[in-house]
Structure formats: C-alpha cells, structure tokens
Amino acid sequence: MENQQTIQPLFHVLKSQQFTRPLLDELYEITNKVRRLAKTKEGLDFLRTILSDKRGMLYFVQPSTRTFLSFLNACQILGIQTSEIRDTNTSSEVKGESIYDTIRTFCSYVDVVIMRYPKAGFVEEIAQVMDQTPRPVPFINGGSGPDQHPTQALLDIYTLRQSFKDLGGLENKTIMMVGDLKRGRTVRSLTYLMKHFKGVKLIFVAPKYLQMGDDIKTFCQDVNIPFIESEDMNGLLPEADAVYMTRIQDEYDLNGESKALDYSKFHITVDNLKLLKPASIIMHPFPRRFEINIEVDKDPRAMYWRQERNGMWTRVAILAKIFNVHNKILNM
After folding, report:
1. Do residue 154 and residue 139 come from a single domain?
2. Active-site annotation holder among 95, 198, 208, 274
3. Rounded CA separation 224/85 (Å)
4. Distance CA 252, CA 118 (A)
5. Please, what is the Cα angle at 257 between 254 and 263, to 5 degrees?
6. Active site residue 66
7. Of the residues 48, 55, 66, 301, which is catalytic?
C-alpha cells in the first residue's frame, strides 16, 4: 500500500493517473504560495530568478489559446526562455522529417517540452522514446486528442478546492459534468483525480451519443466512485455542488454527426441559475460556444474565468515541481 506521507518526484506530466493525493496537496500548496508571491514586484522578481537557467519548447500543433498562453506565461514567471512551433508546416516535418527526429531536435536545445498533439496517447509515447536518448528531458502533455489533458485536471482540482475551502473541501461534493463527455479530454482527466477525494459523487449529463466512455465508467466502478448518467440537466441541477460545462467536440466528427444533435437542453442560462444551490459553482475549460449564456458571467457562482486564470498559477507550480525548485518557493 502506498505510503501516504511520501510525495513522489515529478519528471514527465503525461496523464492524470500518475498523481497521488500527497502530490496533489503539495501542488495546491505551491500554487497558493506562487499566487501570494506574485502580488508584489519583489515576489515576481524573485520568481523570475528561479529557473532563469532553463529553456522550454512549446510544441502546439493543435489549436490552443488558454493552455498555450498559460504555459507561456508560467515559463516567463519563472524566468524560463521559450521557443515555439504551432504548425508543422513551419518545421522540417513539411519536408518529410519524422516527428521523432523533430522532437529529438527539441531535446537537444531545451530543458522541457510542452506538447499539444491531436493523436491520443502520443505525448506519452514520445516521452518513452525520448527517455532512451542521451539527453532525456521532461515532457508535459498539454492535451492529447480526445484522451487526456492532465494539467487542465490539476487546475480544475485547484479551482474546486479553492471554491469549497470554507465548505469542507472537495470531499463529499457532487460534481455534474455536462456536454460532450465521450470526447472531452478535460472531463476524462478530471474524473481520474476524483478518486483521491472521499465521498465525491459524479453526475454525467450528455446526449446519449456523447455519454462518458465505458473506460471511465469502469474506472469509477473499480475505485468506488458513485455516478449516474442522464440527459436531464435541469432535473439534476439542484443536486450539484459544481457544474462542469463543456462544448461539443465536433472537430472529432467523422461525418458531421454532432450537427444533428439538439444541444440546447445542455445550455445554462440565467433561468437555469434558479435551480442551483447558492454555494454551487459553474466551471468550463473553454473555449465555450453557446452552452453558457454570457449573462451567466455576472453570477458569483460563475467560476470559469477564475478557473482560467488558475491555469497559469497551477502550471507555474508544475514547472517548479518538475525542476525540484518548489522548496525555494515554499520557503520564501
């Protein structure tokens, strides 16, 4: 049985399943300290010295706004110099170079590679290959197809814990996940982390075609996370402590099948807010379309813009932990 007092070292960040509760607790503590330090010029100047000897590569060949920018700014906060490629047409891959040679080139120049790639499981695969080279470097999965988005899950856990810190924490809360659960890598990754919080219940709300995959439901059964599946969002909203909204991931459609779905009953409007508990929160990993009306932004339970900003601070903590400089921050 795992020693709950042992905090594992961190090298790669590839999937949610690699995180233990002690590691989550430590990252939570580091993130809080980073946020406090960043409130002053003196604190920011200190943070910029922490990893000023490191270089990072942002290889994002699938579209990204928040993940890319939050990692870029996290690197800058810690003094990491960055390079980037956001389209394979600007690299030698367009000339026929293999993806393996491209990424091994990155490893020759930088100290960490942060990747978003459309193929599920590819970041984990490439990290294992590069571990066998003379100069292995940490890889961070910034999103791998419809499969995993572990750093999003970490910032989501941080947001949930902060939101409920005066309400008994995340334990014994009911989390409703709404939308394209079948192809939503954010909700898949977040579900894996729920096993670390006692008493959490999950409600999966989606059109039948987009319900959560059997692999995740089997995982929940194996680790005794109770869950229900439904298409009735309004009927279950009063039970939710947190509502995690997602958009349709129609970039993964093969034949435009999502266009035939009536997605309107999976939207939150001002009228839906009457069904929510006063202390409930609404989250969204972005980008959003119509699933949350912009008028909902004014409600104090709308936590998604704070969630978005938490991504930058959480990713600072992740980088600090990977390079084993987190104690410098905690002891400041």
Report:
1. no
2. 95
3. 42
4. 10
5. 135
6. yes
7. 66
Q: Which of 116, 182, 185, 247 is catalytic?
A: 116
The count of structural domains within the chain is 2
Catalytic one among 15, 33, 54, 67? 67
Active-site annotation holder among 35, 149, 188, 284: 149
Mark whether 12 is an active-site residue: no
SS3 per-residue string spanning 49-116: HHCCCCEEEEEECCCCCHHHHHHHHHHHHCCCEEEEECCHHHCHHHHCCCHHHHHHHHHHHCCEEEEE
Instruction: Provide the CATH number for the domain around residue 135.
Output: 3.40.50.1370
* E strand or H helix that includes residue 281: strand 281-283
Asked if 149 is an active-site residue, the reply is: yes
End-to-end CA distance of the chain: 34
Do both 154 and 142 map to the same domain?
A: no
Token digits of residue 151: 């750093």
Q: Nearest-CA neighbor of 189 among 126, 128, 261, 246?
A: 246
> What's the pLDDT tens digit per position in 230-260?
999 999 999 999 999 999 887 777 776 676 6
Query: How many C-beta atoms surround the C-beta of residue 85 within 10 A?
Result: 16
Active site residue 35: no
As to burial, measured by CB atoms within 10 angstroms (0-12 exposed, 13-18 middle, 19+ buried), residue 318 is buried
Assigned token pair, 329: 């921050």
Residue at 6 is within a domain: no
Asked if 225 contacts 194 with a C-beta cutoff of 8 angstroms, the reply is yes
Q: Answer yes or no: pTM beyond 0.85.
A: yes
Shared domain check, 238 and 98: no
pLDDT tens digits along 59-107: 999 999 999 999 999 999 999 999 999 988 888 888 999 999 999 999 9
Active site residue 309: no
**What is d(CA 24, CA 279) in angstroms, rounded to the nearest whole number?**
24
Residues 259, 175 share a domain: yes
Instruction: Please say whether the beta carbons of 240 and 203 come within 8 A.
Output: yes
Q: How far is CA 277 from the centre of its chain?
A: 25
Q: Provide the domain limits for residue 65.
A: 16-148+309-330
